[in-house]
Amino acid sequence: MQRYSGFGLVKHALSYHENWQRVWRNPTPKPxxxxxxxGGGGHGLATAYYLAKVHNITNVAVVEKGYLGGGxxxxxxxxxxxxxxxxxxxxxxxHAMKLWEGLxxxxxxxxxxxQRGVLNLGHxxxxxxxxxxxxxxxxxxxxxxxxxxxQGVKEIEPMMDCSDRPRYPVMGASFQPRAGVARHDAVAWxxxxxxxxxxxxxxxQCEVNGFIxxxxxxxxxxxxxxxxxxxxxxxxxxxxxxxxxxxxAGFRLPIESHPLQALVSEPIKPILNSVTMSNQVHGYVxxxxxxxxxxxxxxxxxxGYGQRGSYATIEHNIQAIVxxxxxxxxxxxxxxxxxxxxxxxxACPIMSATPVENLFFNCGWGTxxxxxxxxxxxxxAETLALGKASSLAKPFSMFRFHDGALIDEHGAAGVAH
Amino acid sequence: MFYIYCPYCEEHREEExxxxxxxxxxxxxxxxxxxxxxxxxxxxxxxxNPRGLHHELWVHGIGCRKFFNITRDTVSYEIKETYKIGxxxxxxxxxxxx
Amino acid sequence: xxxxNRLASGGRIDHQRPLNFTYNGKALxxxxxxxxxxxxxxxxxxxxxxxxxxxxxxxxxxxxxxxPNALLQLGATEATQTPNVRATQQDLFExxxxxxxxxxxxxxxxxxxxxxxxxxxxxxxxxYYKTFMFxxxxxxTYEKFIRKAAGFGRSSLESDVDVYDNINQHADVLIVxxxxxxxxxxxxxxxxxxxIILADEQSEMGGSLLDSPALIDGQPADEWAVSAIEELxxxxxxxxxSRSTVNGYHDHNFLTIHERCxxxxxxxAVNGQIRQRMHRVRAKWVVLATGSHERPLVFGNNDIPGxxxxxxxxxxxxxxxxxxxxxxxxxxxNDNAYQAAFDWADAGHEVVAIVDTRANPSGACVEAAxxxxxxxxxxxxxxxxxxxxRVNGVLIAGIDEVGEKVTGSVEPYDCDILASSGGWSPAIxxxxxxxxxxxxxxxxxxxxxxETVQKQLSAGAxxxxxxxxxxxxxxxxxxxxxxxxxxxxxxxxSAPKTAPVNEDRAMALFHIPHTKSTSRGPKQFVDFQNDVTxxxxxxxxxxxxxxxxxxxxxxxxxxGTDQGKTGNINGMAIAxxxxxxxxxxxxTTIFRPNYTPVxxxxxxxRNVGELFDPERYTAIHRWHVEQGALFExxxxxxxxxYYPKAGESIQDTLNRECxxxxxxxxxxxxxxxxxxxxxxxxxxxxxxxxxxxxxxKLAIGKCRYGLMCGEDGMVFDDGVTACLGENHFLMTTTTGxxxxxxxxxxxxxxxxxxxxxxxxNSVTDHWSTATISxxxxxxxxxxxxxxxxxDAESFxxxxxxxGTVAGxxxxxxxxxxxxxLSYEINVSANYGLAVWxxxxxxxxxxxxxxxxxxxxxxxxxxxxxxIVGQDTDGSVHPHxxxxxxxxxxxxxxxxxxxxxxxRADCVRPNRKQLVGLKTKVPDAVxxxxxxAVNDFEQPVPMDMLGHVTSSYYSANLGRSIAMGMIxxxxxxxxxxxxxxxxxxxxxxxxxxxxxxxxxxGERQRV
Amino acid sequence: MFDVNKSMQTVQMNLIPNDVxxxxxxxxxxxxxxxxxxQGAQDRNIKIQELALLDHLVLRGHADNAALTTGIQSVxxxxxxxxxxxxxxxGQVIRWISPDEWLxxxxxxxxxxxxxxxxxxxxxxCAVVNVSGGQTVITVEGAGTEEMLRKCTPYDIHISNMPxxxxxxxxxGKAQAVIRRTGEQQFEVVIRRSFSDYCWLWLQDSCREFxxxxxx
Lengths: 417, 98, 1006, 216
What we know:
C: Ubiquitin-like (UB roll); FAD/NAD(P)-binding domain; six-stranded mixed sheet; 50 strands; 21% helix; 28% strand
């Protein structure tokens, strides 16, 4: 792999950037791999990378029906944080956070992880109770966080209206300083490039349309473009399509796929310092390095694979942002888009064995998948390497929806992200 | 933004008057006490979640307060039909039994 | 400064009405009818900003929505600061204050300009990803510098003073665009009487007709447009919206139209006017007549100020009487653009040359150019523009027939304006918004609308039917079809007539070859706003970014505020060529809303401040306000939180309120609790199914506490339900849960048990409820009623009676949430305040004390009563909160929640259970949300046992009390747990019963 | 001591005090319409009036049940309106709300008698619920009313879709309301008590371009 550095950039500039290597190969499929990852989004690529890097399993293929990182990786609002309530999810997301903190160096690809801090606002007494509960749990789980009052919020985000005026005044917030945002596309590309360098084969425009089974166990996939490819184990990481792929394998998931919309303003001069999220007024906002205000809210209430939602959701979202930041009223919304999120009843993911032997699913991240990318990949890689759930993945079995061991993170998962 | 024909009001109304309530035709098991955990879990949480035709339950919450069913394409968002509780859909997948 | 580029006459501006404005602090003058762009060009302003990445000087390039460069900061005051206003779309008004947004000290002399010259080669696409990684700790510092370059304009720092509006519209036919196609569609449809909306983004309707030299029905095109609009405005059923952009097309033909009501007269609406309005339109049918955008050609230094779109040159001359330069070179791939040269010549300026890339063009225009004596250089292209802050010349060279190689010698020409046209891209944006994928047409050399499930038609240039004749024809046809599809009868109408123009085929050329390779040649811009060059796209494909989505994301192409209106097709063409694929093989270009950016305020409308979300009030609200109550938000309700007196701390107030209630009598406004009237012969059975406890035997006149669970067995609401008649019950719910519970009852009734005869009606708003609580409650009530027996025998705990209280018919429930003798007095809310005031009067001798939700919480916690939502969180079942007594498994029907709470995980040992907590130090109040541990010195991550759900200082008990979840807590009564706090303190507490006060419940039964 | 009606097996109460000196407050009491009525120009386009303190009854039952329809006919002298229709007779209005729900308003003080008559006359599964304290009726009329109301509700209130007499439950801002067209440029809006302040503010704001005056 050609190493990236400032020095390298200067060198390439002198040759008019004509000699940059390809970031990944265009391989031809082998008849059999140790592991096939279905889905070349951030999580799938991270899984492939850690399989190769941590578990030395390099005979790995990633098959992607579109282009790498083209699903929710390309469509999310890039918030990274780990301040989850329950131990199981807190440990998982904090594991991800620690990986984020060294990710650019690990991948030799700047994912622009910017630890600007995340505010989760409280507007009611119960909000504040929940915030205290969560921050206390975070603290005892070794996750940074503090509880701020309205004044403290104002100091971090001076343009926010922290007075008594708003319909739901800001009473305080939890603040996780290590949280922040990252450059979403770079995460997928960085993992893809690094995985490729370790020998992982990446296939784009390669759609899985069936599983090959023998004695109830999965032994490979069939693809539209490259026919059959066999594998020892198969991991499906197909957010936004999990139900469809599970159906191919012959079972159902405790998942519903919903549209999740987001939007950006026109680029404006820096005005926000951190990421602000509010469940009560329903919206979150941060500002990208390019200057766009990046804004989102909750999912649309109906099932949808259309990557579109309802305009009313956008309206409510923008009302919330203008209510929090009245000075943004004259700023303009540039673009809106939608992703498809696989939601579970407890707002926690599924990293799990399935009713089909050798077939594993990693899905159900709902609105919060991006932040987990490294942790998800790391834990799922271990699961695939072991052939059973890793310790971090174990609580996230799909069968918890049978026995009732749900991990209800609705409060922490909140409006999304 | 959907424009939904309410089979009780018998006219199209704006989506904002309605609320989606998940997949339709999931009856409560008649004998819950004798369901296994797995069966009960399937009833509670497992859904067909199709890409394509979906039968779903909606309520005209800000309107006549009636629940009813919609058959909708989850990709194009086209509504094929709406029908009252107890009625059967006209539009179904080939392999589907409702 | 004089308007050096202004023509003495002509255009659609009013030469007699000058308007003063300032740009970058300089006083300038334009005319009524100008845009800011036309006024700046008239005044000879070449540079309107510096580019985003390379700080290159940029000028106005277009005349409409596609303009990528001229983004200005507008606003005379702080509160009206408006960022990123596109100068080509902003009407000039008296006193307008504009400035450029990038470039220091000025865009003409930008200190960062050297970066563009020296540093540009170090900033290929993706350079961020490849650098700034070392050392790890420095990224924050690097990022600060990167962020300095962020953004164009700036947000105001003050709250917006303007008012915005949303309005709902229902149309039979919405026609988007009032150019030739849109106008003819509207004319064809108008007489039907159907509701028609015709919306156009410009201040004057007419679109391309306003600067067209053609004749329609014998009239000059612009005059025809004016009379068409006049005719349309005579129809009551036609709504004409100018300055109104249809910015989004959503499912089921829902579209939004962003109307700027006052932006053309001032930067702030005056006299209570509305600044902008969003029309939320549901249309039966839509006719898209959105026209097309001209594509610039990609060649060396094509971003130097003075390089413009050919059609923009025409527009500025014909519509605004501005000729922005003296010596024109025109480069074109098509006939259409010749008009720019003709207009230029007609304006009395020099046309240096028309450079036609086609080897052998033969259309009428070419003939006309020749007959005008203009120099036409065929089979050639401008391969590079020369100049620094303004074009001063071009290099022209012969190219091969497919436009891939320079074939001839390179000739320099002097000029100060260079117009280019690579043909026209249909404005398909709206047609893509609902997920329809556009289709490439080799014929059109562009994408046209694809298949859609929307009730949508399109007419004119959006279909690639670029000629005026076809626009008028398609407009008329589609207008008729739309109106008939919408269910209206209308007679045929023939299309307005115009002379056909014999046009030669255009050449599919996007990227002009240079003598040097793209990577070594001068910069050739594709996306001007994001500084994306042809070499950047080639590099991206070379690095393996082969999907057009990857290319766009890697280079940022199309992500600007113009959303790639001028650049996307060129970029795709360059990527396709570099990948050796065709354009459709490379991918499509999908547009998302908005077509052009939309003010947040317009989307928000009036839903801000007090109208952001309803504030729900009880009938007694005014009294609470007068008493100085502070309020707590519970759902949408405003509930009195506590009633401080002068000088009191919150704890003082609570102590006073709680003590008064325990010792004498307190009063609470309980009107917000949800109340559901349930009638029907199956009402009782229904209650048995939705509550966990038994209802079969509740007698008329009695009340009972009920607990409600989800099918998962988790607690989701609770409340007291009274039996009003054999078939009639009144259910109360939590304040926040009222709507959810009603919906819960309905969904089960309507979908699962429709055979049950029962009706549910919300009566929350109908009843006003005053709860009097305390040992003197009976005495207070006795003063107010003479027809209700109040003695303990006649009116027992958990009974209800009717009678007259304070002269008003009332239903009185003897139920208690404080553990004291309590009466809940319910009257029609019309009399709620009158009765409340009478109670206060009657209670004054007992020092009756109003208490709010906070004291209510303390009082109930003293009794160990739970609050659903505070002591429960959706993950606890009744047994977890020690409410097994309220679960009756022996009921014949398997009630909701029964099966759920028996799942394996729900019956496992060591679940968290709700217990009481007594601190070792009586005064220490454990903060709510604190987490318990057995060993506070263990390393993190600690083994947490559960959190404190409720915690207060109890004045009545003289100590703190708390409830919380503890793993296996019910079997650990008497044991000690620790709460390590953020401030370093550790609070030690003993696990105990949650009932701290009157454990036998004697006080409420007296 | 219970006034239990045998056929309906329930308690009936007249909630209006005999003592007329007891102050009644409508949900819009705090707005002080009387004062607003005296303020500003009286020639404003939109005229707003509260039909205060009417008695409101919710009637539940099945429209296809003859016992119900004949019961209504006998008590009120009108036939029960079906889908989205209303009927009005001598100050009594019946509005269709749902296939099994109607909202009846009747002059102040007449509700209880009507409630009793209905219970006695209808011998089938039905319910009558007094909700008089929980809501109020506002009328809006005059030029511009329809345009003004388009800012309040997404329902298509154009006369071609909503002729005189038609009634719908829909959104009013973010609250809900029962809206009935009573004339070419005249509508009646039923709002809930707890939302009345919000609805009033919304209405007032929607009228800003037209001007309004309060009729008493």
